[in-house]
Amino acid sequence: xxxxxxxxxxxxxxxxxxxxxxxxxxxxxxxxxxxxxxxxxxxxxxxxxxxxxxxxxxxxxxxxxxxxxxxxxxxxxxxxxxxxxxxxxxxxxxxxxxxxxxxxxxxxxxxxxxxxxxxxxxxxxxxxxxxxxxxxxxxxxxxxxxxxxxxxxxxxxxxxxxxxxxx
Length: 167
Prior knowledge:
Elements: H1 2-19, H2 23-31, E1 37-42, H3 43-56, H4 61-65, E2 73-82, H5 86-97, E3 105-113, E4 116-125, E5 127-136, E6 140-150, H6 152-163
Antiparallel strand pairs: 1-2, 2-6, 3-4, 4-5, 5-6
């Protein structure tokens, strides 16, 4: 009986802690895993990459096709874990799903398609300060944070850009 009560307490504590997660805390949790790719690009790196891409664009079409929100990105953080255990992927999916819309976070898109779970969440504090893109499959986890000062039209463009391959 004591084992049953202790097990229930542990399960409750684990599920409760997962529900209190923030997108940044979930990304930090994945970043701790072995063999994870964790990349951060600051504004200078992004600007340099963009300038080089435009310089190499002989057609000149890149600049005209580039969404305006790209110029507003101050930093990008990508956390990628391939070959995650299905249990850990499920735990992260539950953590992302537990993020509730409130004064800070707002779900822009939530899609479940053949084992792929995609969720795009905005973070607002003063002006909009971030967008999170989560893609969680049975053994692969991709989490991206775009930091910048985005307005409503930028959010629409981000959602359109991230979901265009699903249409």
